[in-house]
Amino acid sequence: MSAEQVHDIGRRRAWAIWGVSLAVYMLAVFHRSSLGVAGILAAERYDITATRLATFTVLQLVVYAAMQVPVGVLLDRFGSRAMLVGGLVLMTLAQLGFAFSTTFAGAVAARAVLGAGDAMIFVSVIRIVSVWFLVRQAPLVTQLTGMTGQLGAIVAAAPLTLLLDRLGWTRAFATVSAIGVVLLVAVVVLVKDSPYRSDEVVAIKLRALAQSVRTVWGNPGTRLGMWSHFTAQFSGTVFALLWGFPFLVRGLGWSEGAASGLLMAMTAWAVLSGLLLARLVARFPLYRSWIVIGIVVTMATAWTAVLLWPGVAPHWIVVVMAFAVASGGPAAMVGFDLARSFTPVQAIGRANGLVNVGGFTAALLTMALIGVVLDLSQPGGMAAYRLDDYRLAMAVQYPFWALGIVQILRYRRRGLDHLRRVHPGAVEEMRAGRPFVHPGIGTEGI
């Protein structure tokens, strides 16, 4: 028996709930990105090398990625509001601890807790999109979620730089941690898990966890979404969270203001390109994975131009590269749209969690390898790195792009075979430009 619907889907209440949840995601992106502009200060504050500096963000992303599967299960069982509350509590406490940390070990522990809180946020917001919006609205709202959430990176790029300059490390990070308290109240008061009177969450017992994850992971659509996320997202994450700012300032000789400005412009471009991509995804659902591959190839080509340019690459080429990298964010969001085509809503939390593992796993591995290559090529520390050192280090991205493209093509074929076998007519629906709705979701409101 289906649950009684008590609120309209895709109407005013849905947008209000999404808006509050989106604000929480923006805060999570801000906290996640804060080290991107504070990296040089952190290296000086804790007297650490590039490899140890990378440890901050790598550990944060390791925790984030490792939490995705259990978070997905908890999300399907307890709903989005409980997970948003838990994530806000952890992030607020972690950023407050980071503000007052005076040792490298204490700071690393704070970033690990921050990663755990951050892990609960994005997939919770995506679940809200899945249950509160119409199928035809979902691709656009998903893109808006990912791209508008990145405004948190803009706040981290410029205003945080100003706060650090005016208030110092401790007061700046303590001030921004207080935002979580305000949003915590908003989530408790305004967010509802479902437009239905009783949400059909899946009460999975711990002994059934492994089997439930294997079932979702065994679906080729989940893997196609994961590899799409893996391939498209990591370069932008690495650039924005840690190595882009030092590469621009120390490698290419840009001023700190210009580097911060480019990070902000990248986020603005990601929002604009995300809107265009949402239209393409909705119009050509059968070719979503090819759209992802096209963006990844563009990204790799632009990086090649910057890295192989004789001497310092001109500003305009660097900007083109940065915008291409920023387009990888919207492309990675397509992974969730792909998984949704293969997954009933009762399992969407687990599927989204598995998809979300992809990009952050690639990002943390790339981030760590860049730090290792920098230290091996120039043991003198952050101040000693030159453009050639950064060129060599940034080249570690290419194997990840190559692996990802191969896997996307592999699971695209398997995914289409799966749909033809299990859901006859689904491929033809998508070829005609109509979204395929998994039978577990239903067809209301399409």
UniProtKB/TrEMBL annotation:
It comes from the Bacteria. It holds the Pfam family MFS_1. InterPro entries: MFS, MFS_dom, MFS_trans_sf. One of its GO terms (molecular function) is transmembrane transporter activity. Its main location: membrane. One of its GO terms (cellular component) is plasma membrane. It is a multi-pass membrane protein. The chain crosses the membrane at residues 15-33, 53-75, 82-100, 112-135, 147-164, 170-191, 224-245, 257-278, 290-309, 315-339, 351-372, 392-411. Residues 17-416 form the Major facilitator superfamily (MFS) profile domain. This is MFS transporter. It comes from Nocardioides currus.
